[in-house]
Automatic annotation (TrEMBL):
SMART domains membership: HTH_GNTR
Organism: Streptomyces bugieae
Record-annotated HTH gntR-type domain positions: 8-76
Classification via SUPFAM superfamilies: Chorismate lyase-like, Winged helix' DNA-binding domain
Protein name per its UniProtKB record: GntR family transcriptional regulator
PROSITE patterns assigned to the protein according to its UniProt record, in alphabetical order: HTH_GNTR
Pfam families in UniProt: GntR
Amino acid sequence: MAGRQPQRRPVVALYERMVEAVRNGTYPPGCTLPTEPRLAAELGVSRPALREALILLQEDGVINVRRGVGRTVSHHLPPRGFEYLKPVEELLGEGRQVATTALARTYEEPTDFSTQHLLLPGTCRVRFWESLVEVAGLPSCLTQEWAARDELLAELLPAAAEAFDGPAAGSSSMLRLLLAAGRELPLTGGSTVVATTLGRQRGAQLGRPADTPAVLITQVVRLDRTPLLAAKHMLPPGAPALPVWQAR
C-alpha cells in the first residue's frame, strides 16, 4: 500500500475502510461480498472507485476471487502495518541501484516520538540517524531513526551497538545494521501508514515542494517486548512500491 500513488488517496481511503469493515465483522472472514452495485450502494461510493479498491484488496490477500463464487473474505487476514523486517533500502531497491546517504549521525534528547515508542526516561540522550535513500539516482525515502539507550543495546544486542559506531554507519540505515546484528534473535516489527505532506524541511531534503503529498510510515522494532528502534520513513510521489502487508 505504501508505494501507491497519493493521487489515489480516495481509493486508498476506501480500501482502509473496507479492511476495517472486515476486521470489525461487517464482512467477516469467509463471507461472500455483495455484488458490486449493492456494495457500492452500501458504502456510498462510485463503482469505479470500488473496483479499484477491490483490486487492491485482492492484491494484498484480504479477499479472494473465484469464478462462479465471487469475492470472498480471506480466512487468514494479513497483519496490520509495515511489519516485514527487512531494511527499507532493500525493500525499495529490488534489483535497482540503491544508495543510502547519512544526513545526521548524532545523539539527541528524547522527542515525544522516541519517548513514546522507546519508553525513554526524560533525562537520557539517544542515537538519532537521518538518512536519504536514493533509488536509481532519485531521492526516494527520507528515514529518521532512534535507537534505544546505549546501555540497553549493549546488554541485549552488543553487536548492534558496535555496528552503529563502525564504518558501515555512514552508508546504511540503522535498521539494516540492527537486523544484521540480531539475525538469530526473535525481533518483531509493527507500524502505521498514513498520508501526509512533506513540509518545508523534508521537502528541501527530497527536492520537492513543501505541500507535496507523501506517505509516512512509522516503525518500531522489538526484541521480545523491549523496543530497540523507532523510525519514520517518508516516501514522496514516484518512490518505488513498498510492500506493507507482510510479517516476519
